[in-house]
Amino acid sequence: MTTGAQAATTALSPPKGGEAIDPIFRQIRDLVYKVCGIFQLEEKLYLMVDACGRRMKQVGIRTPREYWDLLTAHSSREAEIRQLLNEVTIGETCLFRSQPQLDALRKVILPELVAEKSKQVLKRLRIWSAGCSTGEESYTLAMNMLEETDGLLKGWTVEILATDLNDRSLETAKAGVYGDYALRSTSEYFKRKYFSPAVDDKKLQVRPEVKKLIAFSRLNLQDDSRMLFMKGMDLIFCCNVLIYFDGPSKAKVIDHYYNNLNFGGYFFLGTSESLLKLNDKFHLVHFPGTIAYWKPSRKSGKL
Amino acid sequence: MTTSVAEMIRERVGHIDTMPAIPAVFLPLLDLLNLPPERVKLDDVVKLVSYDNTIAAQCLRVASSPLFGLAKSPESIKGAVISLGLRKVETILLMCCLGNALPAKNWALDPVVFWRHSLGCAMVCRKFSEKLESADGDKAYMAGLLHDIGFLVNCIAFPKEFAAAVALATEKQIPFDEAERATMGFTHCETGRELAKKWHLADDMVQVIAYHHSPERSESAKALVALVHLSDLLCHMRGMGYGYYERHGVDLVSDPAWAILMAEHRDLDGVDLARFSFELDEAVGEVFELVSTIFGGSKAQS
Fold first, then answer.
1. Per-residue pLDDT tens for A60-104?
2. Domain B108-295 carries which CATH code?
3. Shortest Cα–Cα distance, A287 to chain B (Å)
4. Are residues A139 and A277 in the same domain?
5. Which of A197, B39, B63, B140 is buried most, with the most CB atoms less than 10 Å from its CB?
């Protein structure tokens, strides 16, 4: 497999004003959304066109039309869509990937959760980074929570559980060493405050006080008995992970998330990812520039 | 609202010197906007554009902007109308017409930010209507464009009071109508309604302007008002609000407007709101560019 960063530079560049994209790619975009709930924005459509190009080369197909047939053939459909999405999302992960999500979290959700839970004896916030991969999201959450320790979260304990199926990803995550590419969206402020120079020349190492918040562990999201033990979450983040499941197992994983969330808790997907119609108990809530899914409070009603 | 406040609004909107009479091209323009596109005649639009020199010049300027990528600037109004497309010209015309009728002079609200939201809401209203089989997209578009017209009235008739409301809203990061109620005791819905009545706008537009924050109070245009209400909320959450972070979440399906809209459009149930909001992000850029071209650039970010 080629790496995304390399391939993206050699393949087609973004279409400049008026250069038409073969309509079949919009059909592919709709298919990908219908099957996986991930939406390719028009401005990013060329990334998907590139990815299709790479997949076509790999499987030896020449025209987009033939590729469409492969994507829709019953036998190859799910596997090929997954391969395609792998190509699209490759190399996208970085720290501070979605600022609107972080804003919603700190400006709206956190004050709400703190107010709701303040009557409880145990001032504890539990966050689950499900499918944490190499740790970027988990550390981003940890740093943002640390920013609140003198304010909103004064006197609170924050626990972040970060799980992934892949042992090698988890090793990288635990090491917490990141280069320029992963840190491309991280501000100087955060770099200075929460990182120190790594042994490896230009990279940065996450500081121990950030790591202390996070427990990394291996978890198969399809392991029902272990999923039952992930109870009492206030927030769950699961970005671009559900693409790896087929319809029924996806619905089951989402049910687990719902059950493991506290009442009034929130569930976040990737930036352009949706739950489709897989769960009707969650409420879709819009925040400036982002969406999240809410498990209604026991008393329900207003946010 | 108490009667005395209502009186006061009527008084100020009715008598203030700067409050203009309805622009001559406004009503014929609304009629045109209400027609299905296939019934709109090129010559009618050209005639309306040519009626007012300022507006004609603005249309020519917009048509020559790089936004439309024309090889050569159009020399005639007709050329401009053809290259822009009828729908776009109607929108530009409406915005110029209202912009000229209610000129911005040290307003509490940046007109560029105001029009970004109004045009954004119009766009969302049309796209929302397209998802519902029996909704009228053109009417919804116009409703979206006009729904917040009360803010323009506030800027002119209540400059000091409204400036305080804007300051409170941006400081506390709360919606404008909440801030208006807290500082002024009434909102742009009431002031907008007075202007709409003075201008003899169609009843459904008056309803939209008066009740887009309380659709359940609308009597004769409930579904349209509810659609504008929901589109308005969505706009604020997708980068087309009033230029500051609004600290709240929006649960459209639990909003009373959802049930109101559903009563008339059963297929609302099938609308995928997550996907809809992703699609809206694709159209924001065009809305911003169009407004900048008409009103000149502003650095204000939404």
1. 999 999 999 999 998 888 889 888 888 877 667 899 999 999 999
2. 1.10.3210.10
3. 5
4. yes
5. B140
Prediction ipTM score: 0.88
Q: Which residues of B touch A276 (CB under 8 A)?
A: 272, 274
A8 plus A129 within the same structural domain: no
**Last residue of a domain, which of A23, A56, A89?**
A89
- The separation between the first and the last C-alpha atoms of chain A, rounded to the nearest angstrom, is 46
Strand partners, A233: A261
Q: Which two tokens stand for residue A267?
A: 């569930």
Q: Number of residue pairs across A and B with CB atoms under 8 Å?
A: 72
Residue A226 domain boundaries: 99-177+206-294
The pTM for the full model equals 0.89
Q: Which residues contact B130 (CB under 8 A, 6 or more apart)?
A: B137
B278 in A contact zone (CB under 8 Å): yes
pLDDT in tens, B183-211: 999 999 999 999 898 888 889 999 999 99
Q: Would the CB atoms of B241 and A289 count as touching at under 8 Å?
A: no
A143/A38 same-domain check: no
Among A89, A109, A126, residue at a domain's last position: A89
Whether residues A80 and A116 share a domain: the answer is no
Residue A275 lies in a domain: yes
What is the edge-to-edge ordering of all strands in the sheet holding A195-197? A177-178, A204-206, A195-197
Q: What chain B residue is nearest to A289 in terms of C-alpha separation?
A: B238
